[in-house]
Design a protein that fits this description.
The chain is mostly beta strands. The protein is 12% helix and 49% strand. It folds into two domains: 131 residues; 130 residues. A hairpin with a 4-residue loop joins β3 and β4. It starts with a helix and ends with a strand.
Length: 311
């Protein structure tokens, strides 16, 4: 019995030793993670990002598009009257050698059945350029954009239509705060109200990842004033417009609130001092959009809309 027990222990030790050798010689290699699909997610197109053709023909002012991992999509287009149209269906795309522009096919099922085709590209900045056209039933005279000729290659009677049908999008839920960076506003981009009241000719604004900001305003006499403080932002559902609160500490203590939007061409920004409040004024809201700063309930339009380009 003792010999049998000893033999069993010896065999067990041998099995464990062999197993250990096998693990060392044939390590388990973890699977390579599948890269995230660049198209999958929710995207917003507003303002200057809306294709000129859509703005002219359909009076489109905003598009909210969602592409799902199960290859379905939902696109909600809003026109200048606030009316919405929802498009749904399935999507697929193929890569093209030598370019990051991809060819896309959309098989729409809602509100009608049709097929569209075209191209799209998600850049290193996370923004998307997108150009598609209905292909079945075909629209007489039109040919769809292709990767070889690039964006702007949608044609009518063989004539390229350029930017007419180029749609641009930003992520609906950006991975990083879109306001962070160094921005410049000068010339026609300076808000008319600032030009009139403060003789402002240029604004250099820096928003930092730690939630601090520094704004240097230069007037027509080249006199500068520096404003500093902290900021916080808040996303607003189904729009690229975001709320912002600025707690200024330099040169005086006050709070300003308003809205801003970063798209592929730059930033629109509209804020007003709210604490201490300025009698008669109310701050703009995302629901009412840019130009909704009011004085005695009257909207002031472009008066306090500040535009920036990123440096």
């Amino acid at each position: 019995m003792k010999k049998l027990f000893s033999l069993s222990v010896l065999m067990l030790a041998l099995v464990l030793m062999i197993s250990g050798c096998d693990n060392e010689e044939n390590p388990i290699v973890p699977p390579t993670p599948t890269p995230a699909d660049p198209l999958v997610g929710s995207w917003v197109s507003e303002g200057s990002d809306v294709a000129p053709g859509l703005a002219a023909v359909s009076k489109t002012k905003k598009i909210y598009a969602t592409f799902n991992t199960n290859k379905t999509y939902k696109v909600v287009a809003t026109d200048s009257t606030g009316a919405e149209v929802t498009f749904e269906g399935t999507w697929s795309y193929t890569d093209n050698t030598g370019t990051t522009i991809k060819t896309i096919v959309l098989n729409q099922t809602v509100p009608t059945s049709l097929t569209s085709g075209g191209i799209f590209q998600v850049g290193s900045n996370g923004f998307m350029t997108y150009e598609v056209l209905q292909t079945s039933p075909a629209i007489p005279g039109f040919t769809v954009a292709n990767a070889a000729e690039g964006f702007g290659s949608t044609k009518y009677n063989s004539l390229p239509l350029g930017a007419t049908w180029i749609q641009k999008y930003v992520p609906a839920t950006p991975a990083t705060e879109p306001l962070v960076g160094v921005w410049l506003s000068d010339g026609a981009n300076v808000a008319p109200g600032l030009k009139s009241v403060s003789k402002t000719k240029k604004i250099d604004a820096t928003f930092n990842t730690n939630g601090t900001y520094k704004v240097v305003s230069t007037d027509s006499s080249n006199v500068t004033v520096t404003f500093e403080g902290t900021f916080s932002t808040q996303a607003v559902a189904n729009t690229s417009i975001r709320n912002i609160t600025l707690n200024q500490t330099v040169p005086s203590t006050l709070t300003s609130t308003g809205i801003y939007r970063v798209n592929t061409s730059g930033m629109w920004y509209e804020v007003i001092q709210t604490t201490p409040a300025i009698t008669g004024f109310t701050a703009p809201t995302a629901a009412l959009g840019f130009g909704s700063t009011k004085y005695n309930t009257v909207s002031l339009g472009a008066t306090w809309i500040q535009k920036y380009v990123k440096n």
